[in-house]
Design goal:
Elements: E1 5-12, H1 15-24, E2 28-35, E3 40-45, E4 48-54, E5 61-65, H2 69-78, E6 94-99, E7 105-110
Parallel strand pairs: 1-4, 5-7
Antiparallel strand pairs: 1-5, 2-3, 3-4, 6-7
């Protein structure tokens, strides 16, 4: 099962302060991947990606970007894995969310 790119989606209290902090660690905001004004943005340092999200969700989320989220969903259901948020629609961009046995959220986001 190919999961695609991995990033950690971090819930933050003040996106401007968080952006400055991660820039000090060598991360750069990715063009056209959100903004401080949008209250979300993606940042990259080498092959490491993080997303900063202010006011969008309560807990941090592991995120993967598969090429076919619907095929992945079918595979997870076939294996008996419960879906917290199933993918909507039959084609195009979509996402699904599952939780691991310890309650950690994992989002599979196809864009």
């Amino acid at each position: 099962m190919e999961l695609g790119l991995f990033s950690l989606s971090l819930t933050v209290k003040d996106i401007s302060k968080s952006k400055a902090f991660y820039e000090a660690l060598g991360f750069d905001a990715m063009p056209s991947c959100g903004s401080v004004e949008d209250k979300w943005l993606m940042m990259k340092n080498g092959t490491t990606m993080i997303g900063l999200f202010e006011g969008m969700f309560e807990d941090n989320i592991m995120t993967f970007n598969p090429s076919d989220v619907r095929a992945l969903q079918a595979s997870l259901v076939e294996q008996g894995i419960a879906l917290d948020v199933p993918v909507k629609g039959d084609s195009g961009p979509g996402h699904l969310i599952v939780k691991d046995p310890d309650g950690n959220a994992i989002m599979f986001d196809q864009f």
